[in-house]
Design a protein that fits this description.
Number of helices: 0
Distance between the termini: 29 Å
Shape: elongated
Order of helices and strands: EEEEEEEEEEEEEEE
Helix content: under 10%
């Protein structure tokens, strides 16, 4: 079908068995799905507006800090700022990316960065912090599957037996997006 430069509007459902090439230019999409996946893909971006709480205990991302939240589609992914976790409302595959500015004072030890789904650990990394060089940037990236109702937390903890403290600095951020 060739439409030229005329306006084209579709309401309802459009389906095709084979699509070889599609170029779409529009100012607004709503309710578009490709292979059951909403477009644009749902995401939530959370950034800390201030430093978090110093603690010797494991703590959720942004504990003790105000955050700025940008949401692509809150009907698919939501950020619970009181409890500091994501909730997903659709079964799928999710991409989690955390970029943390970590301050451990003058203390040097491994930092545990943990991704948890419904309270169970799914991914852990243990980068070493060198306290004498000031706040350091650390990244965690994880691909995970989830079903509607799952909640996803990201925690930090100094891996030294509980004697040393760490906190996240302002600007530390997390992004969770559905990719499939």
């Amino acid at each position: 079908v060739s439409l030229g430069a005329s306006a084209f509007s579709v309401s309802g459902s459009v389906s095709a068995t084979t699509v070889s090439a599609v170029n779409v230019s529009a100012t607004t999409f709503s309710g578009l799905a490709v292979n059951g996946m909403p477009y644009p893909p749902p995401f939530v971006y959370v950034e800390m507006d201030e430093a978090g709480t110093d603690s010797t205990n494991e703590q959720n991302f942004s504990l003790g800090a105000d955050t700025t939240v940008t949401t692509g589609d809150s009907s698919h992914i939501a950020w619970n700022d009181a409890e500091k976790y994501f909730t997903v409302s659709a079964t799928g595959t999710y991409d989690l990316l955390g970029n943390f500015v970590v301050d451990s004072g003058s203390q040097s030890d491994p930092l545990e960065l943990r991704v948890k789904k419904n309270g169970s650990m799914t991914h852990t990394i243990s980068p070493k912090l060198y306290g004498n060089v000031g706040p350091e940037e650390r990244t965690i990236h994880s691909i995970l599957t989830a079903v509607a109702g799952d909640y996803i937390t990201i925690t930090i903890e100094m891996d030294d037996g509980g004697a040393k403290t760490a906190h996240l600095e302002s600007g530390s951020n997390l992004t969770l997006k559905r990719i499939k």
